[in-house]
Amino acid sequence: MTPRNDHLMPLPAVRQLRRIRTFYATAALLWAVLAAGEGWTRPGSRPMWVSVLLLVLFTGLLSVTSLWLRRHRTAEAALTDARTARASKRAMPRARLVPRLRTMGAGPAADR
């Protein structure tokens, strides 16, 4: 039997990923500004390299989080499309198709 819950990821986890993605984007922007500032004032210094390292870290976390959310979105869309296709097949009126097919094949003999 198929499970009743078709969610690929629990909805609270998706909400948390969206929130943390915003945090990672803000942190990456902050460390980019700090790395640029340190590189401008003291190029090659230890604070500049620490800022660059943290920039790389938060950029990586941001990209992984965005990738997870994108995969969830495409999988959710595929699941929704499959549900819509199943629902449209179930909702198709089959009784209307049968008389239409009979009258189309009759031709002039049906006029007599």
- Mean pLDDT comes to 78
**Radius of gyration computed on alpha carbons:** 29 Å
Low-confidence stretches: none
Helical stretch tally: 3
Name the overall outline. rod-shaped
Major sheet: size, sense and barrel closure? none
Q: Could you tell me how far the N terminus lies from the C terminus, measured between alpha carbons in angstroms?
A: 54 Å
Helix/strand-derived class?
A: mainly alpha
Q: Helical amount among residues, as a percent range?
A: over 70%
Beta-strand residue percentage: under 5%
In sequence order, what are the helices and strands, one letter per element?
A: HHH
Q: Tally of extended strands?
A: 0
Helices, strands, pairings?
Layout: H1 11-41, H2 46-91, H3 94-106
Helix pairs in contact: 1-2
Question: Can you tell me about this structure?
Answer:
This protein is mostly helical and 112 residues long. The longest helix is centred in the middle third of the chain and has 46 residues, at 46-91. The chain has helices at residues 11-41, 46-91, 94-106. It starts with 10 loop residues before the first helix and ends in a 6-residue tail after the last helix. It is rod-shaped. The chain contains three helices and no strands. Helix content is 80%, strand content 0%. Helix 1 packs antiparallel against helix 2.
